[in-house]
Amino acid sequence: MEENKEIQSGEFERTPVPQSKLKSWKSFLGMYAGEHAAGTEFVIGPLFLTTGVSAFDLIVGLFVGNLLAVLSWRFLTAEVAVKHRLTLYYQLEKICGPKLVTVYNLANGVLFCFLAGSMITVSATAVGIPFDMEMPKLTDTLPNSITFVIIVILVGLVISVIAARGYDTVTKAANWMSPVIVCGFVAAGIVALVQLEVHSFSDFWNIWGEGSDPFPGQIKYTIWHVIFWSWFANGAMHIGMSDLSVFRFAKSANAGWTTSAGMYVGHYMAWIAAALLYAVYLKSPEVQQLLQSGTAPSVAPGPLAYNAIGFFGIIVVVLAGWTTANPTIYRAGLAFQSLLPKTSTFWVTIIAGSVATIAGLFPAFAMKLLDFVSLYGFILAPMGAIIVFDHFFINGSNLKACKTSFNVKVFLIWTLSAVVFYGLSLSTGIFLSYLTLPAWLVCGVLYLTVNKKRS
After folding, report:
1. Topology adopted by domain 41-380
2. Which of the listed residues 62, 116, 135, 419 has the most CB atoms within 10 Å of its CB?
3. From which domain of life does this come (predicted)?
4. Percentage of residues in the chain having pLDDT higher than 70
């Protein structure tokens, strides 16, 4: 009966996706292009400038890092997905047991809420412009005005209700918003180039030049920082295997190549376009005074886009925040559903939206997005190593159900890798994204050493 319901709904949450429901590569191309040219890009681009990165390190580093991300999606995520055609959660349940998946879902859901909260903050910086709202600064942790609080709550309410109406509403909203956002990034980048008086490639290159000192409170980025950060910015999705749930609908693993649309439209073009907006802002007299006094200026996306393309910029930033926050809150609601199985999806999503809105009241999640995204991928990615190593070295396509409801070995391996490597980062100051791959590999190798091949 449960299997029949899944077939009728088209979700196939606990059964493999049948051949008749598989989608062509075109379905994934549009989805990745839209999802990765969104609200986060308006913050990440400017934040790269605050790290004092050079032109070569940024442009080449982003190219290499995003390529590594595409390869991870193609040869790990998509490869495993088309073999089993199961969601991340059900495949983990088979390996680890349902109770451990519940713990994973809690961590996943909370981190999703924090990410969505940062995007609510992004949208609020645009909505607040007509109300002359004081923008959050790079070093702000707490809300700086009652106007900011009210706008964040209203924006969070609207986004939460849209997300709670279900996946169809979320995707329909994203489909009409995404082209507008991409056009906005292109327009803003072109206008910024004009304002910066860029007439040649050398002029463009000199925007970053040989780099500079990082802003107060930021660390200096080299090419290695850029490569590893951009590779693992979506670590939870590719090496963390979250996108198994997406690529299980793919006809072949070659659909993994479509992620390049997201990486090079969103994580390359959009990041650089947003950085150009910030470069214009940095030339203003008030910012120069702030920098001379040792104060870090704001990276609020709303004013940056408004200064470049006017009210269209406000619209683009609001929509960009929504296209990230809407599906993120929806995913958080699904993750929390396992904790509250008797509560309707609508109300669980509203709960997730409420948590995200509260997080949005604290600008630090948006202003420290580079650090938060690193932490997000670092925590969730090692669990993907369990799936990858189980598939390639232990069970292959012959996936069998776990005999226990809580695989203690997997829990200890996941926890140990996270605690040890995060502690190493804190104690030595090693850039956290440098440790994501070692933590992932150690987690996988430990899983191999404690598991004998099942017959």
Report:
1. Hydantoin permease (1.10.4160)
2. 116
3. Bacteria
4. 93
